[in-house]
């Protein structure tokens, strides 16, 4: 066992990369849940975005078009969920689970011809003198554009929910869709837009996995990242900046366990691999112990079906 081989600077820089796909997906799900909709299909939308982005990137040799295709693929899948739950009024939990299974199967079908291929590389941004700064340059200014996009999205979502009229309307729909409907707001339309945004962000997170984090296509490569994104929204008490903290916590644990395995720590590799998920479950259990605190921040109408006749 050689713990001296673990470089703290590289460890912290790596956690930002490891956290990005989960942060993107969780940011989208935060908006969805703020509208009062519970979409458990994040895993399915992420894996669909991963293969759509990978396929488009390979075919066009453009990572940018790959990310765009991933957003379209994730949003399209989310619209199936939106149609079923908001128009046909199916159960949100059952439909979300079905969406995950559908996404996993669809991605496996589309990805059959892409196994073993490599996408075009996505280069880190050249930030000049900032990248050359000691320690801080390697940690903060040595990443690809999507890392900074994910951070910007958290800030924009926070500002949107806190300071804009549209954000206020979205939160009103999530708190009481009947009251929002009585005030003349189009509840179904607002929720569908939120669902579409959530799907696009999940797809973007999936594409980050297949194009940058693990630049290849592997069936089931999201490996539960969508479920972690769902858990992080609860962990964050539906607050954007806490979401960032939770994503970086999970990313840090993920990177740390990989480094511990490489250092030869005398702990079974399977246990180390499960550590991030175990800690996520532990944190959720501890938070759920104070149910009044959790309920205080959850949208009041989360998971409830809106009936226009009401």
TrEMBL record:
InterPro entries: ABC_transp_permease. It holds the Pfam family BPD_transp_2. It is found in: Cell membrane. The chain crosses the membrane at residues 6-25, 37-58, 64-84, 96-115, 135-161, 192-211, 217-236, 243-260, 266-287. The keyword Iron does not apply. The keyword tRNA-binding does not apply. Keywords: Cell membrane, Membrane, Transmembrane, Transmembrane helix. It is a multi-pass membrane protein. This is ABC transporter permease. It comes from Rhodovulum viride.
